[in-house]
Amino acid sequence: MKIANYLLAFFLIMASFSAYTDSHVDYRHGEGEKEHSGYWKAEDCKEISEASGTFLYISGELLEEADISDKKGAERDAEESFETALAFSELAANYAKNFEAYCK
């Protein structure tokens, strides 16, 4: 797979989370902060949010690995890294959807 495909996939993944990151709020109770009004506990929502971010970060790192492998001519390694990156981006999206559904 060519580097342009990896970059396109990366930017699509990042774009899909722009709405999530723009609307993310710290839901801890306290002065000057929005009160948590979701179905789940604030602590659980924080963990869901952090997990989603972690999965997205891992996805980006794997896309970089795929790019490096592609430049070295190791297409099989590049393809594996790319597929794993997509899996992590799907996990991130699922966690973000749960956050939206149960924590807002």
Write the topology of this structure.
Blueprint: H1 3-16, H2 18-23, H3 42-72, H4 75-103
Task: Walk me through the structure.
- The chain has 104 residues and is mostly helical.
- The chain has one domain.
- It contains four helices and no strands.
- Helix 1 packs parallel to helix 4.
- The N and C termini lie far apart (39 Å).
Task: Indicate the mean pLDDT.
Answer: 78
Overall spatial form: rod-shaped
Q: Flag low-confidence runs.
A: 18-34
According to DSSP, the number of beta strands is 0
**Helix/strand class:** mainly alpha
What is the terminal separation in angstroms?
39 Å
Instruction: Give the DSSP E fraction (strand runs of 2 or more residues).
Output: under 5%
Rg value: 16 Å
Count up the domains. Answer: 1
Number of H- or I-type helical stretches: 4
The H/E string reads HHHH
Can you give the helix content as a percent range? over 70%
Question: What summary fits the major beta sheet?
Answer: none
Summarize the structure.
The protein has four helices and no strands. It has helices spanning 3-16, 18-23, 42-72, 75-103.
What keywords describe this structure?
single chain, 104 residues, mainly alpha, 77% helix, rod-shaped
